[in-house]
Amino acid sequence: MIAYIKGTLIHIEDQAVIVESHGIGYQIFCPNPFVFQGEIGSEVKIYTFHYVREDAQILYGFKKTEEKALFSKILNVSGIGPKGALSILSTAKVGDFVAAIEREDEQYLTSFSGVGKKTARQMMLDLKGKLPFVDTTESIVEGNEETHPLELDKSVAIEDAVEAMKALGYSDKELKPILPILKKEQHANTDEFVRKGLALMMQKG
Hints:
Layout: E1 4-12, E2 16-21, E3 24-29, E4 43-53, E5 56-62, H1 65-75, H2 82-91, H3 94-102, H4 106-109, H5 117-127, E6 133-134, E7 140-142, E8 145-147, H6 149-167, H7 172-175, H8 179-183, H9 190-204
Parallel strand pairs: 3-5
Antiparallel strand pairs: 1-2, 1-4, 2-3, 4-5, 6-7, 7-8
């Protein structure tokens, strides 16, 4: 699982950026690629969501970890795929979207392309009370608990590790019991969470 890519921004396309790292050019689809316009030729760090399906592997990229976290949450909503989630993030600020979910603002949610009343209600049902967002001090708030941005990085790394293990054939039901154990790990990145998770699955087997 690729948690982020650091490299030289080579080119900006309508829907993606090209970043070269160690001689490899990565095409990364972004909500708004042109936010990187002033960084062509410079080193950038883009937080990535590695989407894996049977016929493709696609990288989606974000400037901030909270954008990536929200993208992964929206993907869990029935009826919304990566393109739909990316479209939402191309026009919505993280805080505005989370506030709309919490106050059940159907009118705001249906303003996004491809989101009808049925999908908006499904988003409210699936996401209310489960979303991180940034307050004015740039700390992360989830529910009533304030979390440091490093904790969000950890949460994103765990989510990426879970997606990687699902790609290896494990189901949500199989993975759910090991999540509390992974959350107790300190200073681990995605690869370390994957290794720990696989070791725990082997012990269960």
